[in-house]
Write a structure and sequence with these properties.
With 729 residues, the protein is an alpha/beta fold. The strands form four sheets. Strands 3-2-1-4-5-6-9-10 form an eight-stranded mixed β-sheet, sandwiched between helices. Residues 216-221 and 412-424 have low confidence and may be disordered.
Length: 729
C-alpha cells in the first residue's frame, strides 16, 4: 500500500518520500525454534513463527464484520494466512450490502460480473478460490449486525468466538459490535480510513480502553442547528439541511402514523405519554398524516409537494426577512448596546423564491421528485412513477396559500448558536395535547390505510431520494447566493460516504493483521501490541503503545453546568464501588429466575454490602426509559389528595385541567409503584423494551443507580457501580 501510494505520487499529487522508511515488529518473533518446512502453503509462516502458530491459526474462531474495502483486504489476508481454515476453525463473515460498480476500484475481490450481488457471498467465493481450505471453516451470513438480528447473532454465537475483526463504515454499528465484545470479553480489532489517512486499534479486555471510550477518528462536531435552519453560508450546510428535511418530510410523520396503525390507540397513547416534552409534536404529526392518508391520490401528492416548495423556499425566507429586515441591528439584551448590523460576515441576507414557476426547471424538479417520493409513501407506484408532464398539469391547477407574515423564533444566533428548545409544557399545551389524545381515541385503526415511510437510500438512482436532496439543496443555496452542488457531491455528503482508496486500505489492514498474529501467538504483554495512525499523503506514520483502560475512580471533582443562563462550577464527590473498575467489569447476579423486582433489590443489597437500587435500565450510553425507578408513594398520595381538594374549589377551566393532569400523574405513579411489587425483573425489562430477539439469552445487562443503606450521601455525592449481569434462567 505504501509503495503503491509512492508510485502514484509521481503524478504530482501529495508529497513524495525522500528518505528511507524502516519499520519492525520484533514482538512477533516466536520464542520456539523455527520449524522445518513440510511442503504445504503455510511453510513461510511455519518457518517464521513455528508449528504452533500454524495450528492455532487454523483452529481460530472469529467474526469478520463487513465485506467492503477493508473486509476484502481482510478476507484476502485470512485466506493467505489460513486463519480458521479447518474443520476445527470458524470464519464467520457477514455483510448485507450489494456490490456497486464504484466498488470495483478498491474492493479487489469483486469483478464486473459481481455487480448487484451480495458482497458477503462474492467476497467469500473469491477468497475460497485463493485458498480452498477456507471452505472448511467458512460460516457465511448475509445479515446486518444489530439488535434486531440477535436471534442469529445470539449470546451463544458471541461466546463461541476467540476475537472480532471490524470492517465497518459507520459509528453506530461499530459501537454495537464493541458493546458485544465488552459484554463477552472478546478482543476487538478496529480500523478505518479517510482518504489517504487511516488508523487501527486493538481493544483487549481489561488491558486497553474499549472502542467507545476513545474518540472516533474523522468524526466532526457537526453543524450548529441554527446555522442549518436560518443562516447557511456554505453549500455543505444546504445539503445537510436537505438531509434533515428529508427525514422530517418523508420519514417522521409516516412513521408516527404507522406506529399508531400497528400499535393500536391504547398502546400508542401510552408510548407517547412517556415523553411529555415530545408528546405534542408527535401527536400533531400523527393527526396530520391521518388526515393526509385519508386521501392517498396523486393529486394529494402534488398538493403536498407544492405546499413544501412554498414553505421551504418562499415562506421561511420571507418570515426571516420579516423578523430581521435588511437594515436590522444587533442589540444587547441586557445593556441595550448597539452591536452593529445583524446581516454581516457569514450571515447572508435571504432572497425568496416568490412563487412556483413552471418555466423554472429547478422548481419543476423539486415538485416532481417530491411528488414521486410521496407516491411511494402512499404505495401508488406499483405501476411506475407518474409522468413529469402529468405532475406539472396537476400543479397548475393546485390551489396554494398566500404568505402571511410570521416572526421566526431565533434566539441570539450570533456565532451559529443553538435555538433554545422549550423545556416546560404550558397549560395551553396541556389543553392541546388532551384534545389531540381525545381525537386519536375516536379513530378506528383498522380503517387506516398502510403507508410506506421512506428510508433514505443513497445507492438507488430510481427512488428520487438523491435527486430530492440535490434539488432541495440547490434551491436553498440560491436563496443565499451559494454555488449549486452536483448530484454526486450531494450523494457523498447526505449518504455519509467517506472517500476510500486502495493504498490506505491495504496499508492499514496489513498493520491490523500484525496485531492479529499476536493474538494467534497468545501474546499476553499488552506492551507488545501497537496502535497505528498513518497518512500516506504526507508520510506520517505513528505507531504507539495502546492506552490504559479507562478506570472509574473515586474522588472529588469540579464540573461546569448551565444554571439560569450562566455557567457555574459544581463540586461533586464520586464514589466508585469497587474503586478503579473498568467497562469490562460486571456485577454478576446469579439465580435471578422469576424474582420480583422488590426481591431482586433486597437480595442485591445483601450481596453488594447494603447498596439499594433506586433506578434500573438496560445498559446503554445514555440512560433512557427506565424499567424500574423508586417511587415516593407517600409524596404522590399527598399530592393527589391536595390536587383533589383544590379541584373542587377551582372554577377556572384551564387551572382545573392542570390540577386534573396532576391527579392523573399521581394515579399513574401510584399504579406503577403497585405494579413493581407484582412484576418480575424479566417482565419489567420486556415491558419497557419489548421481547428479546434472542430466545436463548441467559442474562440481561442492566445499569443501576444506587444509594447506601448504612449512611447518608454527602452533598453532591454520586455513587457509580459496574453494569449488572442479571441471570434470569
Amino acid at each position: 500500500g505504501i509503495v503503491a501510494q509512492e508510485a502514484m505520487k509521481q503524478t504530482g499529487k501529495y508529497t513524495p518520500m525522500k528518505q528511507w522508511i524502516y519499520m519492525h515488529a520484533l514482538q512477533l518473533l516466536s520464542l520456539e525454534k523455527a520449524s522445518k518446512a513440510v511442503g504445504d502453503r503455510y511453510d513461510y509462516y511455519r518457518c517464521l513463527f513455528g508449528d504452533s502458530f500454524v495450528a492455532n491459526a487454523k483452529k481460530a474462531k472469529f467474526f469478520l464484520v463487513g465485506c467492503g474495502a477493508l473486509g476484502c483486504e481482510f478476507l484476502k489476508n485470512i485466506a493467505l494466512t489460513g486463519l480458521g481454515c479447518s474443520n476445527e476453525g470458524a470464519v464467520h463473515v457477514t455483510d448485507d450490502d450489494v456490490i456497486e460498480l464504484s466498488n470495483l476500484s478498491r474492493q479487489f475481490l469483486f469483478r464486473r460480473k459481481h455487480v448487484g450481488k451480495l458482497k458477503a457471498e462474492c467476497a467469500s467465493g473469491s477468497a475460497v478460490d485463493m485458498n480452498p481450505d477456507l471452505k472448511c471453516g467458512l460460516k457465511l451470513h448475509t445479515t446486518r449486525v444489530e439488535p434486531k438480528t440477535e436471534n442469529e447473532f445470539s449470546d451463544k454465537f458471541w461466546q463461541s468466538l476467540d476475537f472480532v475483526i471490524n470492517a465497518l463504515d459507520n459509528i453506530k454499528a461499530r459501537y454495537y459490535v464493541d458493546t458485544k465484545c465488552v459484554t463477552f470479553g472478546k478482543p476487538l480489532f478496529e480500523s478505518g480510513t479517510l482518504g489517504t489517512q487511516a488508523n487501527q486499534t486493538v481493544h483487549v479486555p481489561k488491558k486497553t480502553p474499549c472502542y467507545q471510550e476513545g474518540s472516533p477518528p474523522g468524526e466532526g462536531q457537526g453543524i450548529a442547528m441554527c446555522t442549518l435552519t436560518f443562516f447557511p453560508f456554505e453549500p455543505l450546510h444546504c445539503i445537510e439541511w436537505s438531509r434533515v428535511m428529508f427525514g422530517s418530510v418523508f420519514e417522521d410523520g409516516p412513521s408516527a402514523y404507522e406506529d399508531l396503525r400497528k400499535s393500536g390507540v391504547e398502546k400508542y397513547l401510552e408510548k407517547t405519554g412517556k415523553n411529555i416534552s415530545e408528546e405534542k409534536d408527535t401527536l400533531e404529526k400523527t393527526l396530520k398524516w391521518v388526515k393526509i392518508a385519508s386521501n392517498p391520490t396523486l393529486e394529494q401528492c402534488v398538493k403536498l409537494a407544492m405546499d413544501h416548495f412554498l414553505q421551504f423556499f418562499r415562506d421561511e425566507c420571507k418570515n426571516l426577512i420579516h423578523t430581521f429586515p435588511k437594515d436590522a441591528r444587533k442589540v444587547d439584551k441586557k445593556s441595550g448596546e448597539d452591536r452593529g448590523p445583524f446581516w454581516h460576515g457569514r450571515r447572508r441576507f435571504p432572497r425568496p423564491h416568490e412563487e412556483f414557476d413552471a418555466k423554472n426547471q429547478d422548481h419543476v424538479d423539486f415538485v416532481y421528485h417530491t411528488t414521486c417520493i410521496f407516491a411511494d409513501t402512499f404505495g401508488l407506484t406499483k405501476g411506475g412513477y407518474p409522468d413529469e408532464k402529468e405532475v406539472l398539469k396537476l400543479a397548475a391547477t393546485t390551489e396554494t396559500a398566500e404568505w402571511t407574515p410570521k416572526k421566526e423564533n431565533v434566539d441570539d444566533p450570533e456565532g451559529g448558536g443553538e435555538q433554545k428548545g422549550a423545556t416546560m409544557v404550558s397549560s395551553d399545551d396541556y389543553e392541546e395535547i388532551e384534545n389531540m389524545r381525545k381525537e386519536i381515541q375516536k379513530l378506528d385503526v383498522d380503517k387506516l390505510v398502510k403507508l410506506f415511510p421512506a428510508e433514505f437510500e443513497k445507492d438507488d438512482d430510481t427512488n428520487h431520494h438523491v435527486d430530492w436532496i440535490t434539488i432541495a439543496s440547490n434551491l436553498r443555496g440560491w436563496t443565499r447566493n451559494l454555488k449549486p452542488s452536483t448530484k454526486q457531491h450531494c450523494r457523498m455528503i447526505a449518504g455519509r460516504i467517506i472517500a476510500a482508496i486502495a493504498t490506505a486500505t491495504a496499508s492499514i489492514t496489513g498493520l491490523v493483521f500484525m496485531e492479529v498474529y499476536k493474538q494467534i501467538l497468545a501474546v499476553e504483554n499488552i506492551d507488545d501490541y501497537r496502535w497505528s495512525t498513518i497518512n500516506l499523503a504526507v508520510n506520517t506514520y505513528v505507531i504507539e503503545l495502546p492506552c490504559d483502560p479507562k478506570c472509574h475512580r473515586s474522588g472529588k471533582m469540579v464540573t461546569e453546568e448551565v444554571q439560569d443562563d450562566e455557567v457555574v462550577e459544581v463540586k461533586k464527590i464520586l464514589t466508585c464501588i469497587p474503586d478503579k473498575f473498568t467497562c469490562y467489569d460486571f456485577i454478576d447476579f446469579k439465580d435471578g429466575k422469576d424474582l420480583k423486582i422488590s426481591e431482586f433489590i433486597e437480595r442485591f443489597a445483601k450481596q453488594e454490602g447494603g447498596l439499594k437500587i433506586n433506578f434500573l435500565s438496560r445498559k446503554s450510553n445514555n440512560k433512557g426509559v427506565p424499567m424500574y425507578q423508586e417511587i415516593n408513594v407517600a409524596m404522590y398520595q399527598n399530592k393527589k389528595k391536595f390536587s383533589e381538594r383544590m379541584l373542587q374549589r377551582m372554577k377556572n377551566p384551564t387551572q382545573k385541567k392542570i390540577l386534573q393532569q396532576s391527579i392523573d400523574t399521581a394515579n399513574a405513579m401510584l399504579e406503577q409503584a403497585t405494579s413493581y411489587d407484582n412484576m418480575t425483573v424479566f417482565e419489567a425489562y420486556t415491558k419497557a423494551y419489548g421481547p428479546l430477539e434472542d430466545p436463548n439469552r441467559e442474562f440481561l445487562v442492566l445499569d443501576a443507580d444506587v444509594t447506601p443503606t448504612d449512611r447518608e450521601l454527602e452533598d453532591g455525592e454520586e455513587i457509580e457501580i459496574p453494569a449488572i449481569k442479571y441471570y434470569f434462567r
